[in-house]
Amino acid sequence: MNDRNVLIVGASSGIGKTIAINLAKDHKVIAVARREERLSALEEYGIQPVAFDVSHTAEIDIFVKNIVNNTGKLSALIYCAGVQDIKPLRVLKVEEAKMMFDVNFFGGLFFAKAFASKIVCAKENASIVFISSIAGRKPEAGILNYSASKAAIDNITKGLAKEIAPIRINAIAPGFLKTEMTEKFDYIYTDEFVSNVVKQYPLGLGSTEDIANMARFLISEQASYVTGNIIRVDGGGAL
Predict the structure, then answer these.
(1) 33 or 185, which is more confident
(2) What is the largest CA-CA distance in the chain?
(3) Full-model pTM
(4) Which residue among 146, 187, 201, 225 is the active-site one?
(5) What are φ and ψ of residue 74, in 5° steps?
(6) Whole-number pLDDT of residue 185
């Protein structure tokens, strides 16, 4: 176990949960999510759970500073929080569109702002990793707002790499993964749909562990000269 504190936002399920468990083997992990009952299940891995709704963007700064007061400075921030809704434009409501950006984009932006503070961020090899999506570059009908929110994450990944250096900023863009988020759309992501998707992926469908392994690399010393990248981890699905 090393003494690096890693804050993982959106850690109660899917990619975020897998990353938290993966890193807890040798990091001090603080896991953040809205669903407190799911977070508590992570304690058996030595993970510190803290409940917070990332859509409350005005409260993020003081929330992060309170964490640091309890745990010490943070070496890495991994922002995994995200929501997806599959709706055609004709039925998309303004409130729904704004909420998706609050969680998928503005939450990430303001957690990054809080992390960049001198009283929050440890100096040595500090880094931020966002979870983006190949949808940010490959929008499809029904997920235009989701795709736009991920494209916005890609944009700030590059911009923040310039603005808050030497903190390193990178994003991971997964392809299609079967997670709890996609499973709630089982009327769309049927076995037939998934079978057709697999044919488009040269290496087949990946797992959340594939994303966790890349996150581990990006916050490590081995990636100390890597910043401003959107790295596809998609088995060739975006080719």
Answers:
(1) 33
(2) 51
(3) 0.93
(4) 146
(5) -100, 140
(6) 42
Burial class for 43, CB neighbours closer than 10 Å (0-12, 13-18, 19+): exposed
| Cβ atoms of residues 31 and 20 within 8 Å | yes
Q: With the CA atoms of 71, 75, 207 and 45 taken in that order, what torsion angle do they form, in degrees rounded to the nearest 10?
A: -30
- pLDDT 10s digits, 194-225: 777 778 889 988 899 999 999 999 999 999 99
Compute the residue count for the chain.
Answer: 239
Segments in 72-188 forming alpha helices (H)? 94-101, 107-115, 144-163, 180-183
Identify residue 11 by its one-letter amino acid code: A
Q: What is the pLDDT of residue 189?
A: 59
In this prediction, residues 163-185 reach a mean pLDDT of 80
Token pair of 145 as six digits = 């707002």
DSSP string, 38-72: HHGGGGGGT-EEEE--TT-GGGHHHHHHHHHHHH-
- Cβ count within 10 A of residue 119: 10
* 146 assigned to active site: yes
